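for the writeup, i need someone to sanity check this before i put it in the appendix. the sequnce is what the collaborator sent (i think, or maybe the updated version? ugh). structure was predicted straight from it, no edits. if anything looks off just tell me and ill rerun, i have time this weekend
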Amino acid sequence: MSQTSPTLSLPYLQPSQAQKHVTHNEALEKLDPVVQLRVQSFDDTEPPAAPMEGDVYVPANGVNGAWAGHDGDLAVWRDGIWQFLAAQTGWRAWDIASEALRVWTGSTWAAPVAATENLNGLGVGTSADATNVLAVAGQATLLSDSGAGHQLKINKAADGKTASLLFQSNCSGHAEIGLAGTTDFSIKVSPDGSAWTSAMVLDAGTGQAGFGADVPLARVHARETADEAVMRVEASDMGYSAAALEVVTDRSANAAFDFARFASNGGLDAAFVFAGDGNGSCDGSWSGGGADYAEYFEWADGNPAGEDRWGLSVVLDGDKIRPAEDGEAPIGVISGMPSIIGDADAGRWKGKYLRDAFGS
């Protein structure tokens, strides 16, 4: 039978042994520092000047003096001398200086690695629960790029399930963005967390956007079911000088398309059509603040000074006009605000550009 234990080499009491207390005390002296092991420091390379009885240190690499040759061992100050114990793999020690746990790996005293896989929950600054398995309480959460970009992925197991971000106030939902029950991206809002309204839907197949329309039928489709305006375009700058609403096509003027079409009866009855060739039509009548019909002509003298000639009677001079003289019968008077303007081209004289025999 061995006279020492296999793990810590503690001496056994032998049959008919004299001075048994000596052997027993020797075993206790070995147990005392390693049971509930607490280490004063892991970083010292020189023994302390005035250690306390029972203090335990772990000499750092490259130690000198009384610790020389005992890098990583347990140095115990007992009875006025340093006694050394070799740590075994898996021993744990509390680092008093840094208030942290360390484990002897066989080559170094390292911080234990926390479990990171298949956790039931994780709370940072708060407690996780069965629903919110990851819970974070703090002023901000940072997810940073490590060199090749960064994506935050929210995945759902099937199209009919939900993958979204829910924004709450006092734990009541008021806004949600993501894939809610479909593969279409949507933004929903709620006044109370119970009744939800789709503010916007982006069709996953077409990329078309619906505002109030869950199935958008155009690139931008706005739908209103209440007795309210569908869209309002407003320029609040009192010095505004741009176009409040601008419709532009890359295709040149052509009757094959319309700039705008206004229809009633679910789109069946066209009331106003503004064609791509500059012509407009209505299913009723046009009205304006003017009281006359006017037509664009070029001045015979070119009006070099850019005079304001409203109210001036004019006569034809070939295919141009000039001020009427006494005794001449005028063809009309320069109007300041006509209801209808002929020979006009979007506010210009149509003769500004060369055209063919058909006016195109």
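The first strand starts at residue 38 and ends at 39. DSSP finds one helix and 23 strands in the chain.
thx in advance!!
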